[in-house]
Write a structure and sequence with these properties.
It comes from Nesidiocoris tenuis. There is one protein chain. The protein has three domains: 208 residues, Alpha-Beta Horseshoe (Leucine-rich repeat, LRR (right-handed beta-alpha superhelix)); 187 residues, Alpha-Beta Horseshoe (Leucine-rich repeat, LRR (right-handed beta-alpha superhelix)), CATH 3.80.10.10; 53 residues, no CATH class. The protein has twelve helices and 23 strands. Strand 16 and strand 17 form a beta hairpin. The protein is rod-shaped. The structure holds 2-acetamido-2-deoxy-beta-D-glucopyranose (NAG) (11 copies). The site of one 2-acetamido-2-deoxy-beta-D-glucopyranose (NAG) has 11 residues, from strand 5 and strand 9. One 2-acetamido-2-deoxy-beta-D-glucopyranose binds next to loops.
Length: 478
């Protein structure tokens, strides 16, 4: 039984030599040391079958520590792997030259609270799991170019030490089971992970704490999982920003589709950022975009940019948008929930744009257009006004849509105010009547004149004489 244990340890240790060891490592235990105890007072023992491995147990004072390392011949023989269990001294000195030639240093299931100083040498595997660590000097691990595995799980850490430059190496890091880790201290790790060089072990038990107020991403919980942290990070990286502005991207909701991992939807607030155009790119799954109080005039990106394709709520109040005709036939116009364009420069409302939109969808849609000053003409007075009155459920601010040239509100618009061609027509009628009367008078006076000439001279003046004879002419001639 014991032999088997050592053999496994040996197998693992030989794997360690090549830098990796599976997670199922069976580590040397204190059995052997305990067994030797009656005959030896040394806290450390070299494994009989594995001469490069030393195990130390129950170190509760510096005296036992130094004596153990000395009688265990840790430095004398080429020791590569050192395991210490039940190390209960408050601090652990990383700067000691004793660790310089080690490949494995494992100080687990003890009670030490602090790691001080800086390691150097060829350590590639450090395990401080299951202690009471509350602090590790920031640079403790910074000078370990061969580090492949760092396990500081199940401690009481609030922040993480710097890791050595990862470059091309794969480093496995276990920080699970630290219940007071602060998220802001973990964010830099995520960018390392995206380069595929950092493997986070036990992701499911890896959490960090986010102060409710400053961390606006997940409001319902203080505990943020690694998974959530990564999503947040990728959203933050893609959150629109420019030299002079930074939009606010935040969590909007979660879509749970059975059989799929939950997808998070994002809301982006770029209001009041002095933008003159829509942001270049939005984070994945942006469904709410608020670009109010800017100087935006074009809706082009909303129509054909793929990162805008999930937008349901588009709020662009107080901008310079002059037309929404381009939205015709767009994906957005069929899928939106809110289209808010209050206080823009819309000159007209192309009602055909919405004809199948309001009819064909069962779910509520809202369009806000208050404060726009339309170019009110007769068709506005007729069709747009009617359209507004019949779609008040969709256009709740229908009563605040205005006409330019001081014509007041569209819903108050009177046809007689703007339908000029009707007034024209009635005036024209009077001209025709007046013209007709004038013509009649002329005709009557011409006939009277002809009659007068005929009476005195006996013949008809031109052109009456050239006209074919009419029955009434016989009256005159007879
Ligand atoms: C190491 O252990 C194996 C099996 O347990 C045994 O056969 C071998 O003799 C041991 N070698 C030494 C040097 O103790
Ligand atoms: C840890 O060591 C102390 C003495 O140093 C001992 O009293 C205690 O029982 C040990 N704990 C374990 C779990 O071995
Ligand atoms: C670190 O030590 C703990 C306790 O001995 C062990 O459970 C864990 O597997 C070790 N970590 C690694 C990565 O081997
Ligand atoms: C862990 O740290 C927190 C805050 O830093 C502290 O409140 C708590 O008592 C510590 N727990 C242990 C077991 O040391
Ligand atoms: C790191 O790990 C990844 C995946 O596990 C692997 O594709 C890559 O080749 C590794 N890189 C190095 C330098 O070992
Ligand atoms: C982590 O949790 C997910 C879902 O809860 C599960 O599918 C996965 O197997 C877990 N991973 C590990 C390493 O436990
Ligand atoms: C954030 O808080 C609001 C109201 O308190 C709640 O409706 C919403 O679901 C919370 N968000 C998350 C991600 O839990
Ligand atoms: C971004 O959102 C946070 C949290 O909602 C808020 O405190 C902060 O003022 C916002 N920043 C800007 C520039 O709007
Ligand atoms: C829009 O631009 C004008 C000048 O071009 C500027 O005066 C105004 O403040 C800008 N408005 C916003 C909301 O940025
Ligand atoms: C959009 O932003 C403006 C300005 O910050 C704010 O007043 C308004 O409430 C926001 N609208 C929505 C729907 O979030
Ligand atoms: C979107 O339309 C604009 C103007 O028509 C064009 O310049 C741009 O290339 C289009 N973008 C995409 C992704 O099609």
């Amino acid at each position: 039984m014991m032999n088997m244990l050592f053999m496994l340890a040996a197998v693992c240790a030989s794997i360690l030599t090549f830098g990796r060891c599976s997670q199922n490592t069976i580590e040397p235990s204190c059995f052997f040391v305990e067994k030797n105890k009656p005959s030896s007072l040394c806290a450390c023992s070299r494994l009989p079958n594995r001469t490069d491995t030393v195990v130390c147990c129950n170190i509760n004072s510096l005296f036992i520590f130094h004596q153990g390392l000395a009688c265990g011949d840790v430095e004398k023989f080429p020791t590569k792997h050192l395991y210490m269990y039940n190390y209960t001294i408050d601090k652990f000195d990383a700067g000691s030259s004793k660790w310089r030639n080690l490949e494995t240093l494992s100080v687990t299931n003890g009670k030490f609270k602090r790691v001080v100083g800086q390691f150097s040498g060829s350590l590639n595997r450090v395990n401080f799991s299951g202690n009471s660590l509350t602090s590790i000097d920031e640079s403790s691990f910074a000078k370990l170019p061969r580090l492949r595995l760092l396990d500081i799980s199940h401690n009481n850490l609030t922040s993480l030490p710097d890791l050595p430059a990862l470059e091309q190496r794969n480093v496995s890091l276990d920080i699970s089971g630290n219940h007071y880790l602060e998220c802001k201290n973990m964010l830099h790790l995520i960018s390392l992970e995206t380069f595929n060089n950092l493997h986070i072990a036990n992701i499911n038990e890896t959490f960090c704490l986010a102060p409710r107020k400053s961390f606006h991403w997940f409001n319902s919980t203080d505990k943020v999982s690694w998974d959530q942290l990564i999503k947040r990070r990728s959203v933050e990286e893609k959150c629109p920003k420019g030299p002079n502005y930074q939009c606010n991207c935040s969590f909007y909701g979660m879509d749970l589709v059975q059989g799929q991992s939950p997808s998070y939807s994002i809301q982006v607030d770029c209001s009041g950022r002095h933008l003159t155009e829509l942001p270049k790119q939005l984070p994945l799954n942006t469904i709410v975009l608020n670009v109010s109080n800017n100087n935006i005039s074009s809706l082009q990106k909303l129509i054909n940019d793929s990162s805008y394709s999930n937008i349901r709520d588009f709020i662009a109040d107080n901008n310079n948008i002059e037309s929404i005709k381009s939205l015709e036939g767009s994906h957005f116009i069929y899928t939106f929930r809110i289209l808010s364009l209050k206080e823009n420069r819309l000159k007209s409302i192309p009602i055909y744009l919405f004809s199948h939109v309001f009819d064909s969808r069962w779910d509520a849609k809202h369009v806000n257009l208050a404060g726009n000053r339309l170019n009110c003409d007769c068709s506005t007075a007729q069709s747009v006004k009617l359209w507004l009155m019949t779609n008040t459920a969709y256009i709740r601010d229908y009563s605040e849509i205005l006409c330019d040239k001081g014509l007041g509100r569209v819903i108050d618009l009177d046809m007689t105010q703007v339908c000029i061609y009707q007034k024209d027509w009635t005036e024209y009628i009077y001209y025709i009547i007046a013209g007709e009367i004038l013509l009649l008078i002329l005709l009557v006076s011409k006939v009277s004149y002809d009659y007068c000439v005929f009476k005195t001279t006996g013949y008809l003046p031109w052109p009456a004489s050239k006209m074919p004879k009419l029955p009434c002419d016989w009256v005159f001639e007879s």
